[in-house]
Write a structure and sequence with these properties.
This protein has about 200 residues and is α+β, with helices and mostly antiparallel strands. It has 6 helices and 12 strands. Strands 1, 2, 3, 4, 5, 6, 7 and 8 form an 8-stranded antiparallel sheet that branches. Strand 5 and strand 6 form a beta hairpin. The protein is elongated, with a radius of gyration of 21 Å. The protein binds iron/sulfur cluster (2 copies). The site of one iron/sulfur cluster has 13 residues, from helix 5. One iron/sulfur cluster binds next to helix 6.
Length: about 200
């Protein structure tokens, strides 16, 4: 999948969990509609009175995730900005999502502010296949931070990690290796290696 495919999947699910951090550093999450996806950007809106709005303005960051019926998850974590041309974007959002007129009839729509996620790490995680499959993409030139584990040259090829891997994604060799695209990041190999040859990325 490309970045656009991942964003298109979020748009087709539409109701996604959007997470922010509040003024006390506590995580907050709520369901928000993905209103538009185009040019590798994700658009949504919220009302100026909401805590969500203040948290977006204060931190400039958001994380979004949703799961489809095939157990595929897309996660987007990155930076958000409020769009300058409020009337244009809110009108476009209502055009593309007419059900919004039921919630904000007439000019009440202009209490809403449009936002766009313009730079983020995008991850697709497929739990509906065996072994599981994951891939990461960059949106807007965002650096991709690799997670998970890797096996170092200290490996003595004992085979313990392979025997405890729930996804069978560790291959034998003089130095064993992990197929990161099939790894759960569970850490079972890491905890069981007798010589601490496995490190967290
Ligand atoms: S458990 Fe550690 S030493 Fe044994 S094969 Fe795996 S990485 Fe190598
Ligand atoms: S972290 Fe878990 S899934 Fe990934 S290689 Fe290690 S044991 Fe296997």
């Amino acid at each position: 999948m490309t970045t656009n495919d991942c964003l298109a999947m979020l748009r087709s699910i539409k109701d996604a969990a959007f997470a922010t951090v509040d003024e006390n550093g506590r995580p907050q999450v709520r369901i928000i509609d993905v209103m538009l996806v185009e040019d590798e950007k994700l658009y949504f809106c919220t009302a100026r009175g909401k805590s969500f709005y203040r948290q977006l303005i204060n931190s400039g960051a958001v994380a979004v995730t949703a799961l489809n019926k095939d157990f595929k998850t897309v996660r987007v974590a990155g930076y958000v900005k409020k769009l300058e041309d409020q009337k244009y974007w809110i009108d476009r959002i209502f055009e593309e999502n007419p059900v919004m007129n039921d919630v904000y009839p007439g000019d009440t729509r202009y209490i809403l502010e449009p936002f766009c996620i313009y730079e983020a790490q995008v991850e697709m995680f497929d739990l509906g296949t065996s072994p599981i499959y994951r891939e990461s993409h960059s949106m807007g030139g965002c650096d991709i931070k690799e997670a998970g584990f890797e096996i170092t040259d200290n490996c003595i090829a004992c085979g313990t990690c392979k025997s405890v891997c729930p996804q069978g994604c560790i291959s034998e060799g003089d130095i064993y290796s992990i197929s990161g695209e099939h790894c759960l990041h569970c850490g079972n190999c890491f905890e069981n290696c007798p010589v601490e040859a496995i490190i967290r990325k």
